[in-house]
Amino acid sequence: MDKKKWAQRGGLFAICILLGVALALLIKSQNTSSLSEQNMQDLQNNVIEYQRRNEELSNRNAQLQNYISELESDLTGEGNEVLSRLIDERENYAIFAGLRPAVNSGVVITLSTVPGQKMKDSVLREYVNELSALGAQAISINDERKVATTEIRARQDSILINSVAFDREHDFEIKAILRSDDLEQNVLPYLKTVSDSIAAQLGDEAPSVRIETLANVEIPALREDRIAYQYDLLKPVQ
Amino acid sequence: MTEKKKRSLYLSILMIVFGLALAAFIRSLLVSRGSGNEFISAYQESVLEYEALQAQNQRLIEQNDLLEAKKDVLISNLDGDESYEEIKKEREYYALISGIAAVEGPGIRVTLNDRIEYDPARHPIESIVHDKTVLHVIDVLKANGAQALAFNGNRLTAVAQIGCIGPTILCYNNRQMPPYVIEAIGPLEEMATAIAGDTYLSHITSQEIGIRMSINVVENLALPSFSRTGDYRSLITLLEAR
Which side of chain B, N or C, has fewer Cβ within a 10 Å radius? Predict the structure, then answer.
């Protein structure tokens, strides 16, 4: 009797195991088939992005190799390109930091408040952020160059930009350098929608906006007396 | 019902369920051999390609780090020549403030994440982190003395680009995934107090909206060079020095 009982229980156990395996395989095949077009699109976008990044890195590494060869030949007295390279690099870093004036095609946005109203710092920041997202390579607000640590904030009757105070009841002028072939087709229409969105949010308090595209927009460098570039807490990583 | 009959009934039910599961599995195998199969194999090929590109990217980054370090060592060996000294010092200064040099110092790390189990049918749009949320945190930090910043490991520079395409946040045209981490080196207390006390951030981290935010003070925070993100020269092609 015992043997028969064990046989029955063993058989039942085996059936349950098989049932579990069949259910697990079924669920797995359901998961695989639930892949959607969106998953594929996301994956393909990621593939394209990585291809772009890898090509850029590869080019940079090749340029670094050349630079290193020049440095090595200079150190052994065989070349004289290094000084010129260092000067170029110094200048490029200064340009990248916003410490050199710049001139090229771009836009000028003039914001005027309604009499009695004060300019909102959030409006200035919105335009600046949108211009950055559009690929602006240099931006200034009332001729204050926007740099990595530029703040735009209201303090009572003024808006502080790079810690310089501007009267909130006066006009503000935002300039940006952008690619000329983008200006009419992309930048201008997009900035108009930004203006419309701000007008819808603020109603009567919205400033009036004039946007012009110009072939030569001049943007000054950050002035040396500005505290926008405090770096006393920064140490280079060795 | 006798015990024997009960056992037979249970066994029958078990066998029926097993048979149904087996049939469903065999059916799904047959269905997937149809058009779905091609889609799945194209997807799997793309996954393999993506993984290979990721691995290549990691190797290129490591190679880039080695080359940058070698370049710096060689440049430092130019000591002693007056014509180099002055230019080297200026170059290092501009590298520091432009974001080309990796830096460290006292700082804070603010982490933002979407509401848990966000459901667009039930929860407001503010319950997911947008580019404007990230930009707001950055603005608060700058207004409170931040001297260097990074977003998801990307060093922010004078030409930082943070925007949205649909539900995705881009930084320098690279897609960013949550959790979103904003780091800043600067005066610890001012920055941390400003973030903790900010009205907008308090609103979006309320139970009703549900954005998750954490603030960590770090005694020595390291921020990477912008070179980790891309080639800075591609961002200044329109700028002609006068």
Answer: N
> Which residues in chain B have Cβ-Cβ distances shorter than 8 Å to A99?
94, 97
Taking contacts as CB-CB distances below 8 angstroms, the residues of chain B near A198 are: none
Model confidence at B240: pLDDT above 70: no
| Amino acid B242: pLDDT | 41
Among the listed residues B231, B100, B158, the one whose alpha carbon sits nearest the alpha carbon of residue A139: B158
pLDDT digits (tens, 9 = 90+) for B182-208: 999 999 999 999 999 999 999 999 999
Instruction: Return the HEC string of A184-217.
Output: HHHHHHHHHHHHHHHHHHHHHHCCEEEEEEEEEE
Tell me what pLDDT residue B36 has: 63
**pLDDT more than 70, % of chain A:** 92
The sign of the CA dihedral B192, A229, A221, A170 is positive
What is the signed CA dihedral for B200, B201, B207, B209, rounded to 10 degrees? 70
Phi, psi (degrees; rounded to nearest 5) at B75: -65, -40
Q: According to the model, what pLDDT value does residue B83 have? A: 66
Q: Is B221 on the interface with A (CB under 8 A)?
A: no
Which carries the bigger pLDDT value, residue B73 or residue A147?
A147
User: What sections of chain B are H helices per DSSP?
Assistant: 3-32, 35-76, 82-98, 131-143, 188-197, 199-204
3-state secondary structure A57-81: HHHHHHHHHHHHHHHHHHHCCCCCC
| CATH of the domain spanning A102-222 | 3.30.70.1880
- In CATH, what class is B104-234? alpha beta
As given in the structure block, the two tokens for residue B13 are 């039910």
Listed residue (B167, B105, B180, B93) closest to B138, CA to CA: B180
Q: Which two tokens stand for residue B231?
A: 């080639």
pTM for the structure as a whole: 0.75
Residues of chain A in contact with residue B90, where contact means CB-CB under 8 angstroms, are 90, 94
CA–CA separation, B1 vs B3, rounded Å?
7
